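I am still learning, so would you mind making up any protein sequence you like and the tokens describing how it folds?
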Amino acid sequence: MGRPGAGKDTQAELVAKHVNLMRISTSDVLVAYMDEHAGEPEVQKERVLFDRGDLMSPSFVLGIVQERVRELAAGNFKGKRGIIFSGSPRTMFEVEGLYPVLEEIFGQENIFAFYLEIPAEEGIARIQKRNARELDRGEEKLRIRMREYTERTEPVLRYLEGRGVLHRVDGTGTIEEIAGRIVEELDQ
């Protein structure tokens, strides 16, 4: 987890390889679902939010993510040791709905959340440097994403901290240094 530009996708991919986990990018799961169900009115409404840079309706996101996690669990995670999310859950509604599912499947002792701590300015600079995704283009979209993060995602950190599963990691430095910090936390 982390603010926009923290490197969530990059770190999730590296940790997934190191620990033999299946990476779940919530945005990838949502885009695939929206593409598959493009004609449905609810999906069209959510697509507008997504394309604008706003967080999508928590109930919509939660339902799709819960379904995907249960599908993967039923398939024994395709030979992986488990799953790793990049940047999810993003709202209290999502974490309160997803956490019990994860606890049921994995057990409390096997749930870990890593928060990549970086200054907001560094997140914006990283996003502007990569400028690879439509979601990252435009100053207004960046402002919306940062505001949404502060208002809706930061409370999730307190929830996970209260469950004893949140680990704060310095998200500055090289990609390898950051990954090393995460793996070190996992090894402990």
